[in-house]
């Protein structure tokens, strides 16, 4: 398959991006968060939930956002005016906006009283969506995915009963491209493509290739949108991410599951010295890495459970490793608490507490000091290599990132108390996991680096935080 060079001319990175997945946040709240927190604390991107009209299901479960009725920009997050304001505001403080887009299918649920712009009610049973418009001929024939070893079923049959669009149709391609271009013209930087595994790469190549260049108000002339695609896959599956990485990036589901194993006692951390492609992970240039997302939080995949905010200490450590390890793009989850996997989001606006945490049922992992401190760490060490790997032979490790940063982890039941090589110049440094450098002092722990770059590192097994990190800019 031949892909045009334009597809590979993606938005250049200022540094390794840390994107916050602000799951189910309102547009108004995202706009505020870009200004008051994301930009100032070193996050360079935000992923927002699907922005177009969708099903309205009893109980308002989160997954209704993934059942589109039209491409009108209206959702429980806000209308088109609110979306435009959010994009303008976030771009204005250097935070790129990525939209979660769904165009593999249309909803099979009835719209619960909503009507189209012409007053009609979509007849989803007969595959009628007047606000696009789509009709029965724009979909693949009705069939179910009964055999996950059958490539054709995966690509043309209905995912959980949702009506499967025919992206091979020029008309359907045109409607999808119009939708994407509208978002690009407003100022978004790219897209998370939901259910990409269920669409032909050749069809996606045409769709992506017909999108506009990014808005020059915010991006260099000729910049292209970055597409990162959802391809849930396990070793040996009939459809793998490498079929799509010539088009853009892919979400690396295996990455987070392997780190979950390491930080919950399933695989000794001593083995992570070569974490990456040798583990059958995607190359960094082809992937967006993450610990959890809205799907894996609720059910996991491949028989594996993801680490989530519910295992907070291990979750923070795994996220810390992800942000300390070389990557091009990493996604940090920002979610809401739930007991029922279908549970709808809490009320807006998102309340912010004096200690920078969120209230009202919003978890806001990106506001945990252990995580935002590591977002800054990732920015400082960008472009450096891992060096001076150390391990006690079990679940205690440390490593440097060039001469810019140092991190150490203790994930076992005994204390870590050792002189370790930090690769940093002598002096006092603020541990960015326990606090910040503020007014020339540390709000958390101070770590002293001696001549030769060594420092005494102490992490008790019962410490609230199971890791410490220092970098060149945290020096006092």
Keywords:
476 residues; alpha/beta; eight-stranded parallel β-barrel; four-stranded antiparallel β-sheet; 9 helices; globular
What topology emerges from the helices and strands here?
Elements: E1 17-22, H1 27-38, E2 45-48, H2 80-92, E3 96-101, E4 105-106, H3 151-156, E5 163-164, H4 170-186, E6 190-193, H5 201-209, E7 226-229, E8 249-252, H6 253-263, E9 287-290, H7 294-299, H8 312-324, E10 329-334, H9 369-381, E11 386-391, E12 396-401, E13 405-410, E14 416-421, E15 427-430, E16 437-438, E17 441-442, E18 446-449, E19 454-459, E20 467-471
Parallel strand pairs: 1-2, 1-10, 2-3, 3-6, 6-7, 7-8, 8-9, 9-10
Antiparallel strand pairs: 4-5, 11-12, 12-13, 13-20, 14-19, 15-18, 16-17
Helix pairs in contact: 1-2, 4-5, 6-8, 8-9
Question: TL;DR?
Answer:
With 476 residues, the protein is α/β, with parallel strands linked by helices. The protein is built from nine helices and 20 strands.
Instruction: Count the E strands.
Output: 20
List the total number of helices: 9
Largest sheet: 8 strands, parallel, barrel
The first-to-last residue Cα distance is: 54 Å
Q: What radius of gyration results from the CA coordinates?
A: 23 Å
Helix content: 10-25%
β-strand amount: 15-25%
Unreliable stretches (pLDDT < 50, length at least 5) are: 1-15
Series of H and E elements: EHEHEEHEHEHEEHEHHEHEEEEEEEEEE
| Inertia-based shape | globular
Q: Largest sheet, order of strands side by side?
A: 1-2-3-6-7-8-9-10
Q: What's the overall average pLDDT, rounded?
A: 94
The secondary structure category is alpha/beta
